[in-house]
Amino acid sequence: MLLFKNVKDLQSYLQIQMGNGKLIGFVPTMGALHEGHLSLFQKCLQTSDLSVGSIFVNPTQFNDPADLVKYPRTPERDIEMLAGIGCHVLFMPSVEEVYPKGHKLPEPIDFGYLDQPMEGAHRPGHFQGMAQVVRRLLDIVQPDHLFMGQKDYQQFAIVKEMLRQLKLKTDLIMCPIVRENDGLAMSSRNVRLTKEGRLLAPNIFRALNMAKEKTSGHFPREIEEDAIKMLSMPGMEPEYFEIVDGVTLRPIEQFEDVDVAVACTAVKVGDIRLIDNIVLKNNA
Ligand code: AMP
Predict the structure, then answer these.
(1) SS3 4
(2) For every residue of 225-276, which 3-state class applies, written as one string?
(3) What distance in angstroms lies between residue 105's CA and the mean position of ligand 1's atoms?
(4) Residue 273 alpha carbon to ligand 1 centre in Å
């Protein structure tokens, strides 16, 4: 695996590969890698000639500075994991490399309603920061395929909209959520859960499954209320549990109104904020 730390070297290398007709697949991450991330790389390796990953803890998408400081970082282990699965190229830039002094950032994109609800409402500025770094990384790597997880459903919808507005040729591919045996969605943040928190956290998947079971025969609002009750207990506090149109992310009155319905939730387990979702209906 080749490791690049600066933009120029990476671009010179990739230009040669593109010139040779190689299809480039890209997996952006913030590191502290787990099986969920690796599943994206596996997909990338199957689909592309050259798999490029990035590890960059992007400061501009952290609305809470303490969260940025505490974000887990395991660079040596990450490099070993990616080399072990046969990833071709890893880009690990510094903050200065991604946002060099004097580099003019493009105007923020208007995402309409997509960045307003759920994570957008609870993490002001998060999606603009995320979009900014994904745009910059796409500009550097110029991939044919971009692999992102369903785990961050709203992020996926926003990146899709960004690619549409910027008319980028990159093909965006959604990869399914990888879970622990007890249903907890894998996340870099899981290592920060306390013992008690780790035992409580699988309730998130239980609530999502309850929503799936009740999809036929119940109104979204009823299910949301039941889920909030299920997730409210000592040591655990839901921030939101919303059943939305999987395309527009707008709340839905009844399932018959939409082709795709998704339940999305954010829950604080102790001090750790976890997000998860489940597709309830997909007639798209
Ligand atoms: P992150 O490092 O958290 O920014 O995540 C990098 C990419 O991995 C994003 O596209 C995430 O949606 C995806 N991802 C994170 N956790 C999982 C998971 N448990 N299953 C599948 N994809 C995931």
Answers:
(1) strand
(2) HHHHHHHCECCEEEEEEEEEECCCCCECCCHHHCCEEEEEEEEEECCEEEEE
(3) 25
(4) 15
pLDDT grade for 208, boundaries at 50, 70 and 90: very high
pLDDT in tens, 88-136: 999 999 999 999 999 888 999 999 999 999 999 999 999 999 999 999 9
Q: Is 186 in the pocket of ligand 1 (CB under 6 A)?
A: yes
Q: Which of 34, 37, 88, 126 is catalytic?
A: 37
Degrees, nearest 5: CA angle 249-115-132: 135
- Enter the tokens of residue 114: 């997509």
**CA neighbours within 13 Å on the CB side: how many for 103?**
12
CA-wise closest residue to 108 among 80, 81, 130: 130
Distance from residue 218's CA to the centre of ligand 1 (Å): 31
